[in-house]
Design goal:
By secondary structure, this protein is α/β, with parallel strands linked by helices. The chain folds into 2 domains: 8-46 and 225-303, HAD superfamily/HAD-like (Rossmann fold, 3-Layer(aba) Sandwich), CATH 3.40.50; 86-222, Rossmann fold, CATH 3.40.50. It has helices spanning 27-36, 52-61, 74-85, 98-106, 151-162, 186-196, 229-237, 253-262, 277-282, 299-303, and strands at 8-11, 18-19, 22-23, 40-45, 71-73, 92-95, 140-143, 166-169, 175-178, 181-184, 199-200, 214-215, 221-222, 246-250, 266-270, 291-293. The two termini are 17 Å apart. The chain binds magnesium ion. The site of magnesium ion has 8 residues, from loops.
């Protein structure tokens, strides 16, 4: 891969620019250098816990320059997607955090009041609901990572799903890289809904003897990587973007590299997040990165700047 053909670098965030609340060493300086050399910069993240405004504030706190329109998140993209498929749903049920709800409200949706307005209320139990009522009716269930998930919230989401709602998942990330290891990601949490709403395999053994005896109820649409919807949306919003001149930088083979390959982008793996060098060297097909660097701090040198 020649490193001279790019005009835009798109970065994943978690595990690439920061881990938890800690920026990757040298990330801010590297991004400044890349911008100063004339490259356009965008960020595409599966993380739906924060709105674009909240992510912008976080990057700014870390000393990383960015603007809101450079940030594409699965929360914002989910709001855009729902607007396309169901412009006027009477209500949405959200299993997710304030950032996701804010993006949906920003797109003009009424978000179900159950578990709102703040995270305090999310710790509610069934006793807070009117007698005989378990959850609000909703036409669309939207799931993102919810680090305040409770049994009551999962039960309400399951109710909505079993009532025939469409399920739009912001992403199915199994894990989320943090300073001290990995935590369950959005997929790691919402898979309980897929299992609870699933069907027993015909001819299989008893459902409870193994997870694999249930055919999961898959989401109707997954917004996040490795699906290419967020890039499609970015290109729709900025017609000047040319895929052939994009380098995508990510930390996961299964999410980022396969996303880049599926979207026709050049791909770079950095080793500051989930994937290891050994895994990358063994990877084949759409999981194989075009290039590997220790961290984003090494990117300016690789670009020859
Ligand atoms: Mg990542």
């Amino acid at each position: 891969m020649t490193n001279r053909k790019f005009s835009r670098i798109i970065f994943d965030l978690d595990g690439v620019i920061y881990r938890g609340h800690t920026p990757i060493n040298g990330a801010g300086a590297a991004l400044s250098k890349i911008r100063a050399a004339g490259y356009s910069v965008s960020f595409i993240t599966n993380n739906a816990t924060r709105s674009r405004s909240q992510l912008l504030a976080r990057l700014t706190r870390m000393g990383i320059k960015a603007s809101k329109d450079e940030i594409m998140t699965s929360a914002y993209a989910a709001a855009c997607y729902v607007k396309k498929i169901q412009p006027k749903p009477h209500s949405l049920y959200v299993l997710g955090e304030q950032g996701l709800r804010n993006e949906l409200r920003g797109a003009g949706f009424v978000v179900s009041p159950f578990c709102l307005p703040g995270e305090q209320e999310c710790a509610t139990t069934f006793s807070h609901l009117p007698h005989g009522e378990r959850s609000p009716s909703a036409q669309v269930l939207i799931t993102g990572l919810d680090r305040h998930v409770t049994y009551a919230k999962l039960a309400a989401a399951l109710d909505v799903l079993l009532s025939g709602a469409k399920w739009v998942a912001c992403n199915l990330d199994p894990t989320l890289p943090m300073e001290n290891g990995v935590h369950p990601g959005s997929g790691g949490v919402s898979v309980s809904l897929a299992y609870a709403a699933g069907k027993v395999k015909s001819g299989g053994r008893a459902a409870g003897s193994s997870f694999s005896n249930i055919v999961l109820r898959e989401p109707d649409f997954v917004v996040g990587k490795p699906n290419t919807y967020m890039l499609d949306l970015l290109c729709e919003e900025d017609k000047s973007i040319k895929r052939s001149s994009i380098l995508f930088v990510g930390d996961r083979l299964d999410m980022d590299i396969s996303f880049a390959k599926s979207a026709g982008l050049s791909s770079m793996l950095v080793l500051s997040g989930v994937a290891t060098k050994e895994e990358a060297k063994k990877a084949k097909g759409i999981l194989r990165p075009d290039a590997i660097l220790p961290t984003v701090a090494d990117l300016p040198k690789w670009l020859g700047i």
